Amino acid sequence: MATTTIVYDNNVSETTVAISEGDNLWLPIDTLHNSTDWELTPEGACIGTMCIPIPTGREEEFFAKEESLFNLAALERHMGRPILHDEPHSTWLFGRSTTTHVGFQNPIQAPDFTLPDLQGNLYSLSDFKGKKIFLVSWASW
């Protein structure tokens, strides 16, 4: 059997049970977690608390049910992540898009702090939760 190399979030795994078909990479559902950390739940494909629902009506793009296979490349395309496939070497590289990185996996959250305005009134960052703010800072050094 041919070995397929999967590079996913800087983790490299090799498997002999993957099936490459053009732009699709089918993995047995029971091995998906070992190569990618994704798990299939009723909510969709999940890593930790982040779940990506499988689009209704497009299940055939993601599942080959008779063979218990999941199309990892379809999930990555659905999330807008870049994919590189080197067919001669049977290697798949899944990258991170800016949207996926910030929006799904590592949201950036500032710590709460309190500062006075020019009149001495105290304001906390948490006072503006849910609102867009423009924060300007300055230092003399």
Protein model, in words:
With 141 residues, this protein is of the alpha+beta class. The protein has one domain. Helices cover 17% and strands 33% of the residues. The model is unreliable at 100-106 (pLDDT under 50).
Annotate the secondary structure layout.
Elements: E1 4-8, E2 11-15, E3 19-21, E4 24-28, H1 32-36, E5 39-41, E6 44-47, E7 50-52, H2 59-62, E8 63-64, E9 69-71, H3 72-78, E10 83-86, E11 91-94, H4 98-105, E12 114-116, E13 122-124
Parallel strand pairs: 1-11
Antiparallel strand pairs: 1-2, 3-4, 4-9, 5-6, 6-7, 8-9, 10-11, 12-13
Care to give the gist of this entry?
By secondary structure, this protein is of the alpha+beta class. It has helices at 32-36, 59-62, 72-78, 98-105; strands at 4-8, 11-15, 19-21, 24-28, 39-41, 44-47, 50-52, 63-64, 69-71, 83-86, 91-94, 114-116, 122-124.
Distance between the termini: 63 Å
Number of DSSP E strands: 13
Mean pLDDT across all residues, rounded? 85
Shape call: elongated
Strand content: 25-35%
Low-confidence stretches: 100-106
Biggest beta sheet summary: 4 strands, mixed
Share of helix, binned? 10-25%
The number of domains is 1
Question: What's the order of the H and E elements?
Answer: EEEEHEEEHEEHEEHEE
- Give me the secondary-structure category: alpha+beta
Radius of gyration: 21 Å
Strand order of the largest sheet: 2-1-11-10
- Count every helix, treating DSSP H or I runs of 4 or more residues as helices: 4
